[in-house]
Specification:
The complex is a heterodimer. By secondary structure, chain A is α/β, with parallel strands linked by helices. Chain A folds into 2 domains: 114 residues, D-Maltodextrin-Binding Protein, domain 2 (3-Layer(aba) Sandwich); 124 residues, 3-Layer(aba) Sandwich (D-Maltodextrin-Binding Protein, domain 2). Chain A has 10 helices and 12 strands. In chain A, strands 1, 2, 3, 4, 6, 7, 8, 9 and 12 form a 9-stranded mixed beta sheet that branches. In chain A, strands 5-10-11 form a 3-stranded mixed beta sheet. Chain B is an all-alpha fold. Chain B folds into 2 domains: 40 residues; 248 residues, MetI-like (MetI-like fold). In chain B, 75% of the residues lie in helices and 1% in strands. Chain B has 13 helices and 2 strands. In chain B, α10 runs antiparallel to α13 and α12 packs across α13. The chains are: A alpha/beta, B mainly alpha.
């Protein structure tokens, strides 16, 4: 009799512990450093509103997040670029599914100039020439006679890839571009370098001048309107990738992130809403 | 002590001894396995057909451009080899006189109390994490140097080299001081007895006698400088230029691996190229360190006769 009670108790205990550890695993978010701040803010507020929900957020870069999604170590991947075909193939080999893409916010990749620089607008062609090394002196753009100091990101960055594809039309960066680890380092360098130019997310532009990009329709700075309407040419989507269509707890999170409440946080962090 | 107690103590001691031996062997095995792993990941450049379509051994030394993310990727190692050499040399030019001067001063001229103070303080410098040194060079030193000399590029090889110098001074100092201290007292007494001034004794007798050890210290510092990553990653600007100008921005081998390995396609050409750089670095530092220890051993033999 006592034996039976002990066995039953042990079984119940095991079942409860298994249940707890299931609940304790929660949802993991991993990937883009650009989206790290945003992911953390979302997780914080979501967990406040839903006691019991557990969300873990880590960075590492878009590619790192996609790799984690493929090998199963994260449920949600944050990416500042869309998935490549080779990555989708790998996902299909393992899960018979090309993954589920959800644009969660928009970003305008911004060009930064030092505040003392008299230039305030550039065309996409001029930007391309600066970054490919065809234009090397500010005087060629109507500025003072001084060398342009070109700053960019490391080639592991999603922003590096986006900028190369969209702003430079797949041309190669000049070898004299200084690649710095992180957007904050680029902003800091440009803030201290009168003749510097750099690029990165608009949320980071503190202490530097944002360049307006001149197109046929006028000059545009990255703002909510220009990014949403697509007038700002370097606008991009920020994504969440899932292995399959969200359901249950995951769906609740995704719906909340896309709700007006979730999108309000996007604005607060410094990015732009998706709708 | 009873016989039983003694036996028990011996047993305990032999257990501890065995443990230490295993730990030592494990450390050696770990280094060996790391070497094997780097070899395995870099060798496909020579053998794998698939990888060789993207990258070959020849491509690593062809041209002067390091442009791995491109429609037409170029993997020339020359700019980053030159970058590593440039920054290392600048670091040594800055660090060697400072470190050896400090070593000579603290072992020959400083009073015992001052000596007790200098040694720990210099060695404290070794405790500064290199990311902190790099951060300092990136934010403060770069602006300071630029405002004084008016250089075009804020982040350049000289800026990184000086910061790197700070990182290797303790290593060179520590080894050089050991070498100078190893010179027997009788050398100094003889020189002073012949009427040499303390300065003459230090520079004409002690330093030449310790020279192999001091060279070993310099080489050891060089090995450190070649392998140091964080300082150069943050302070050198990382432009892969093939240029001998120390005032231009530069990219080293270590910084290239650190910055790019995070997001290469696993098993692709770029991935194997980065591992090959790692292998090259491993071999270079291995040779430098070995030469350094052979020199140091030679000094000990010269001063105290062949090993017992």
């Amino acid at each position: 009799m006592t034996k039976k009670i002990i066995i039953t108790a042990a079984l119940v205990l095991v079942a409860v512990m298994a249940g707890l550890s299931q609940a304790g695993r929660g949802i993991t978010l991993k990937g883009s450093d650009t989206m790290l701040l945003l992911g953390q803010r979302w997780a914080e507020i979501y967990m406040q509103k839903n006691p019991g929900a557990v969300i873990q957020v880590t960075g590492g870069g878009s590619g790192v997040g996609i790799a984690a999604l493929i090998n199963g170590s994260t449920e949600i991947c944050m990416a500042s670029r869309s998935m490549r075909d080779s990555e989708k193939q790998k996902l299909r080999e393992r899960y018979f599914n090309l993954g589920h893409e959800i644009p969660v916010a928009k970003d305008g990749v911004t060009l930064y100039l030092n505040e003392k620089n008299q230039i305030s607008e550039l065309t996409l062609d001029q930007i391309k020439d600066i970054y490919t090394g065809n234009t090397t002196n500010w005087s060629q753009l109507g500025g003072p006679d001084a060398k342009i100091i070109v700053y960019g990101r490391e080639n592991s960055s999603g922003t590096y890839v986006f900028f190369r594809e969209v702003a430079m039309k797949n041309a190669d960066y000049t070898s004299s571009m200084q690649s710095l680890p992180g957007t904050a380092a680029v902003v800091n360098a440009v803030a201290k370098d009168v003749y510097g130019i750099g690029y990165g997310g608009s949320a980071y532009a503190k202490g530097v001048k944002e360049v307006a990009i001149k197109t046929a329709k006028g000059s545009f700075k990255p703002t909510t309107e220009t990014v949403k309407s697509g007038q700002y040419p370097l606008a991009r989507n920020l994504f969440w990738y899932l292995r399959a269509k969200p359901s249950g707890e995951m769906k609740k999170l995704v719906d909340w992130v896309l709700s007006p409440e979730g999108q309000e946080i996007v604005k607060k962090v410094g990015y732009f809403t998706i709708k | 002590m009873s016989l039983q107690k003694k036996r028990f103590r011996y047993l305990g001691e032999s257990l501890i001894e065995g443990n230490i031996k295993i730990t030592a062997i494990l450390a050696i095995i770990a280094v060996f396995l790391i070497f094997l792993f780097i070899m395995r990941e870099s060798l496909p450049i020579f053998f794998s057909q698939e990888v060789m379509q993207e990258i070959t051994f020849g491509k690593l030394f062809h041209g002067i451009e390091w442009q791995p993310v491109s429609d037409n990727p170029r993997f020339s190692m020359w700019p980053i080899i030159l970058g590593s050499l440039k920054v290392t040399m600048i670091a040594l030019v800055f660090a060697v006189p400072a470190a050896i001067g400090a070593a000579l001063y603290s072992s020959e001229f400083a009073g015992p109390r001052l000596k007790e103070f200098i040694k720990p303080v210099v060695e404290l410098l070794a405790g500064i994490p290199s990311v902190v040194l790099g951060f300092f060079a990136l934010i403060i030193m770069a602006s300071f140097l630029k405002s004084i000399f008016g250089w075009t590029y804020r982040l350049n090889a000289v800026n990184a080299g000086i910061a790197l110098g700070f990182a290797v001074i303790p290593a060179i100092y520590s080894l050089a001081e050991d070498a100078i201290n190893a010179v027997p007292r009788s050398f100094r007494e003889a020189a002073l007895g012949l009427g040499a001034t303390p300065w003459q004794t230090a520079t004409k007798v002690v330093l030449p006698a310790a020279l192999p050890g001091v060279s070993a210290a310099v080489l050891f510092g060089m090995g450190r400088a070649v392998g140091e990553t964080m300082v150069v990653l943050m302070a050198a600007g990382n432009a892969p230029l093939f240029s001998f100008n120390p005032l231009e921005s530069t990219r080293t081998m270590t910084a290239t691996i650190a910055a790019e390995l995070g997001e290469v396609v696993f098993g692709g050409g770029h991935y194997h190229a980065l591992f090959f750089i790692g292998l090259a670095l491993f071999l270079v530092t291995f040779v430098i360190n070995t030469v350094s220890w052979v020199l140091f051993d030679g000094l000990m033999n010269r001063l105290y006769g062949a090993k017992k």
